[in-house]
Amino acid sequence: MAQNNRVKFTSSKGRAQYPWLNQPDTAFGNEPKYKTNLIADDASALVKMIEDVAEKEFGKDWKKARMPYKSDEDTGETVFITKSKYVPNFFDASGQNLVGSQVPKIWGGSVIKVGGFIAAYSVSGSKGVTLQLTKVQVIDPVSSGESSGDGFDSVEGGFVAEDILQEAFDESETTEEAQSADRF
Q: How far is CA 102 from CA 17, 36, 72, 99, 109, in A?
């Protein structure tokens, strides 16, 4: 791995996608990884930094290298892929360091910023650039929603479950009356 060409980065704010930040992802028997994708609207500065590292490391063939981002042309958003085998440092929106129980659970959709190093690699003929995660700024955490109690406000004239129960009860009475009338 070409560690001599590491460049520090800090992303713009975005939404966490598939975050494994509070605990490592240990699936598939691999070594534990702390990781998250970051969906960002304002991505041009970070994309340029990544491409500059790739061009400096791989020269004119840099466009053939694997990149740690994907662009969605429909939405205009860019998804950055970050990971680390080490626990990242956490900060709140004011920039204060968070430790232990101060770190909130970070679920998909949480608004965060990420930072770390951009590094080029060349392993077994595979070339690319990676975003090594070292820090996370938690701007607006999203909870799991398991016990939030959030629902919807009432809407006048709409469907109400009690209406179905009443209709079913009324139908059963009508059916009983019709059956008893047929007996005579």
A: 21, 20, 34, 5, 19
List of residues 6+ apart from 67 with CB closer than 8 A:
50, 51, 54, 128, 129
How many separate domains does the chain show? Answer: 1
CATH number at residue 51: 2.40.50.140
124, part of any domain:
yes
Residue 143 confidence (pLDDT): 75
20-33 pLDDT, tens digit per residue, is 999 999 887 778 89
Domain range enclosing 133: 2-140
Q: Which of 133, 37, 39, 143 is nearest to 89 (CA)?
A: 133
